[in-house]
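Final report, closing paragraph on structural work. Over the funding period we assembled a curated collection of sequence-structure pairs, and we close with a single example.
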Amino acid sequence: MTDAATAYELAQVNIARLKAPLESPQLKDFVDGLDPVNADAESADGFVWRLKSEGGDATDISVFDDPWLIVNMSVWRDTHALTAFMYRGRHREMMARRREWFERVEEAMVALWWVPAGHRPTVAEAESRLLHLRANGPTPHAFTLRAPFPPGGAEPVPGDAPEGLGCPV
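Its predicted structure, as stored:
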């Protein structure tokens, strides 16, 4: 890895619109899976940081001032590390069930961007990146796993994301 690449880390945000309150029986399996999946993330190769409240997850952190939206935000070494985590194990199993718990939304709900190593993005920064992606499509400012950009890159590189899968949280 080059010095330029190690000067950056990959931030990701994904939001999801709940079909029911978190306390509801409909979301019990999702809520029960949060701690194990978060533990898997924190022990994954390339994991750097994740957004969490004092409760240990981010389900009570507001995004876009909408009580039906939940947010997940993390920082990873690179797109390969994020992809390796997302599409394996318990996280993949939970993604396969996402339509049980979350509304289908047409606009972009996931955004990636490069941050200087050591930077921890804020929810406001994440909202801004999502809005940029929605308005402009993938750019170096905000992109997706299907259309990623390298750190400081102007041209997209081939993506790692399998077809038909997206991360709800």
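Residues 28-43 form the longest helix (16 residues). Confidence is low (pLDDT under 50) at residues 161-166. We thank the funder for supporting this effort.
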